[in-house]
Each structure stands twice: as C-alpha cells, then as structure tokens.
Specification:
Length: 456
C-alpha cells in the first residue's frame, strides 16, 4: 500500500498479450494493450475477442467498461502511458530453420524506445533463446533518447491454452530475471495485486528472483521437460504394443510415485500446439550455438517419438479395416471415417501443430472419405485442410461411418453414449487416439476398440 500502482502496457495483443492485458486490468492496474494491427485493436476495443479462451470475454468486457483497460496502435501513446512495458509478441519458428524468429521482439523494442521520456522498465514475456534479454537491453539503450534510463527484466509466462486466464491470475510461480534493484522493485509493484489476490485466497505465489539467462532458460526447460514426459509415456506405449501390455495402467501405476507424478502421462497421438513442438526445436538450435548441443540431443528423440505416434493410428485403421499396410501406408479408398476432433487439445480452437489434424490429413491422403467434427476448431481446421467434409455435430459425423477416430479429448466425446452412436455408425469400429474413452463401456456396446499402447 502507499506507492501508486505502476501503469502497464502489453506490447502485442495476440493470445498472450490480450490475456495478460485483461487479467492485469482485472487485478486493478491501469492497462494499455498495444498492437500494430488496426483491425485487431478495433475489435478488442469493442470488446470482441479474436481468440477462444474460457473467461476472457467477460474479463475484457468488464475492464473495458471499468475504464482500466484500453487498446491502441500508437507506440507514442504507449511510451507516454506506461511505467512497465511487457513484450508479449510471438517468437515463431524461423522459415529457414529450427531457431526462433525474433523479428517481432526487435520491432517492438526499436519502435517503443525512441518515444520514451522517463525511467522505464521493459519486461520480456515471450519465449526466447537464452541471451535475448542482453540483446534487448542493448537495443533498447541504443534506440532510447540520450539520458533516458531504460531497464530490462525477463519474466517468462507459463500459461496453458484453455486455462490462460486462470494461469495468469493464479500462477504456480513467477520468475523475475533482473540486473538491478530498481527493476526488481518495479516488477514486484507490477505484480503486487497478484500477490494480494493470492493472500485473500490463502495461497502463496512463489517468486524466484534470478539473472536474465536463468529466467530465459526456465521457460524452455519447463516445456522441454513436459514434452519429454509425454514422449516418455508414448515410448512406453510403443513397448506396451510390442509386449501386449497396457500403457494406461502402467502410467497410473508409475504416477502414484510422487517423484514421478500422474500428470502429463497420457499416451496418445503426441503433443502439439503453438509451443511445445517449436520450443524443443528452438532450444536444441540455441544449445548448439552456445556449445551445449550434446546436452539436448535427447530432445531429437523426443521429437521423433512424438511424430511416430501419428502413424500408429494409420496402422490401427488398416488393421481394423482389413487393408494391407504397404510401405506407402494403407489404401483406405471407399472407407468413410469420422474424425472426432481437430484442435491440438480440448477447450481451444487452436490447430497449430495439431496431431489430430495431422492424422486427419494422413487418412485423407490414404484416400479415405473423411468427415471431421470439432466443437470449436472447424474454422481454423478448414484453413489447414480445406478439401474434406466438416459437420457441425457428433451425430452427423458418425452417421454411416465405417470407422470412428477420436483425435482430440473433448468432453463431448468422452461423454458420448456408445450405444446411441453405434446405432448411427455403419460399423462399430473405434480408434481412441487420446485414450480418453471409457473403453470397457465401448467394448460392452459391441465396438471393436483400439487405444494407444493398449492390448488388442
Ligand atoms: C504448454 C505448457 O503446458 C505451458 O505451461 C506453457 O506455458 C505453454 O505451452 C507455452 O509455452 O506457452 P499448451 O501448449 O497450452 O501449454 O498445451 P499443453 O496443455 O501443455 O498440451 C500440449 C500438448 O501435449 C497437447 O497436444 C496435449 O494433447 C498433449 N498432451 C498433454 C499429451 O499428449 N499427453 C499428456 O499427458 C498431456
């Protein structure tokens, strides 16, 4: 209490920036969201949210109304307004390789810095190669007017799609990579309301204060660990398939050991999304550059296991449909397949690097006649895979299907009644690509069921 709340800007109003802007306004800060895309800013200013994220619409509307949240395309206005500026732009995989593309980070910093007139903190949130904060510091100092003290901090985000607002408002930790006391104090001030919210809910948010490099690495190390955990259980699924064992019970059993933990041990068609796949590649590329390539060689295997799982669905389809599996994959001509799902995981409309959509593409390429149903991601999926049939309900999708494949673990699919669906399908054959169905009830309803890493 006492010290005024710093005013915050979020530079880049994509998934990350728009979520942070709305959540920090909700916490009581004066917030400005900044983006060069005029159409996006016009929409956000009108309370229209371009992304599907539970709870975000309400937070946007509520805080636009309260006046604490505003949006602009003007970097001059951003510099005038903000005490702390958060870099929230995307760092996609470069077109020419596996490294991260930092051109958006660069343009945000070099556009903002010349407008600064007072002591300012710029905080990196984007996922970046280690060493980026030092580079941003040089860039900012070079482009800021003489005599203006511009300082840097790195504070990675760990939010999950589908839980983004919750993860921003109630993080399991925050990491502050700083060089000066002032930067550390400003970061605490910019998060004070977050700590206060935790206190009212009898929680604590652990804070790790560290240097730039550690803060940058925390993010990619966390994602590399999660990816490795998934590929580990998918590798076990391969072994289970060879041994006639059941990976779901294996995962359950090892997960009881709290050192291992039961989360992120679901075998399936592999991990996807806008983060894990690109992050493990960029991490390897960066480690190579700084002479630590050998340390991350295992991530190459993690990637290979992950890609391999998708082929398993094709092999299972060929087996269930009695089609030979040639070296070029099966020929599934004349077969109608209901593909349930397209999003890379449930509760999102995101199809970036979606393993489910990759499976759908492979089935279509094998000449199957596929029909896709996803509760949220149809619009995005259609862009990636235009020439197949999309329907707007589960029942439409399964009607007349010779084979049903679940590729995204939506609740709607888990809750589906195997008897009712069996009445609509032309054959009771199902591949559970995410091991998300209650297989006993499907088998009891007469379905020929195939899971991932489970005995046939
Ligand atoms: C991931 C991380 O979980 C976040 O902590 C991180 O902040 C975020 O990336 C990021 O870097 O921004 P997200 O991409 O939203 O979040 O997705 P996850 O929930 O991690 O799922 C990733 C993929 O793994 C999905 O395709 C999911 O289906 C798959 N998965 C997950 C499995 O195959 N098995 C599991 O047991 C868990």
């Amino acid at each position: 209490s006492g010290a005024p709340k710093p005013r915050l800007t979020f530079l880049g109003c994509g998934y990350l920036g728009s979520t942070y802007a709305a959540c920090f306004a909700e916490l009581g800060y004066e917030v400005l969201g900044v983006d060069i895309d005029e159409a996006k800013i016009a929409k956000l200013s009108a309370g229209e949210n371009p992304i599907h994220e539970p709870g975000l619409d309400e937070l946007l509307k509520h805080n636009l109304e309260s006046g604490r949240l505003k949006f602009t395309t003007s970097y001059a206005q951003a510099a005038e307004f903000g005490d702390v500026h958060f870099i929230c732009v995307d760092t996609p995989q470069r077109a020419d390789g596996e490294a991260a593309d930092l051109s958006y980070v660069e343009s945000v910093v070099t556009t903002l810095a010349p407008h600064l007139t007072r002591r300012t903190l710029i905080v990196g949130k984007s996922t970046v190669p280690v060493g980026t904060a030092n580079w941003v510091e040089e860039l900012a100092c070079k482009h800021a007017p003489d005599g203006v003290d511009v300082q840097i901090a790195w504070s990675p985000e760990f939010l999950r799609e589908g839980f983004a607002c919750e993860d921003v408002l109630r993080p399991n930790r925050v990491v502050f990579g700083v060089k000066s006391d002032w930067a550390r104090q400003m970061l605490y001030a910019a998060h004070k309301a977050l700590f206060e919210l935790a206190a009212t809910e009898d929680r604590e948010v652990p804070v790790v204060v560290t240097d730039y490099a550690t803060a940058e690495l925390v993010k990619v190390a966390a994602n590399a660990f999660l990816a490795t955990k998934i590929s580990f259980i998918n590798a076990m699924a391969e072994v289970c398939e060879a041994a006639g064992a059941d990976v779901t019970l294996l995962a359950k059993s090892i997960g009881y050991d709290s050192r291992i933990g039961n989360k992120f041990l679901r075998a399936g068609i592999g991990f996807g999304g806008g983060c894990l796949p690109k992050d493990i590649r960029a991490f390897q590329a960066r480690a190579q550059e700084i002479g630590a390539g050998e340390a991350l060689r295992f991530l190459h295997e993690v990637d290979l296991v992950n890609q391999r799982r998708r082929n398993r669905v094709l092999a299972l389809a060929a087996d269930l449909l009695d089609r030979p599996l040639g070296p070029a994959g099966p020929d599934l001509a004349g077969v109608r397949i209901a593909v349930l799902g397209a999003a890379f995981k449930p509760n999102t409309d995101d199809v970036r690097n979606s393993p489910g959509l990759a499976v759908a593409k492979a089935l279509a390429k094998a000449n199957a006649d596929i029909v896709i149903y996803d509760p949220e991601a149809t619009k995005n999926a259609r862009r990636e895979l235009p020439d197949v049939e999309y329907v707007t309900s589960l029942t439409e999708a399964v009607t007349g299907a010779d084979l049903t494949c679940v590729v995204t673990a939506w609740d709607e699919f888990r809750r589906a009644d195997p008897h009712a669906i069996g009445e609509l399908a032309s054959a009771r054959r199902i591949i559970d690509g995410m091991n998300c169905l209650d297989h006993a009830s499907w088998i009891a309803a007469g379905w020929d069921y195939r899971g991932m890493g489970r005995p046939i």
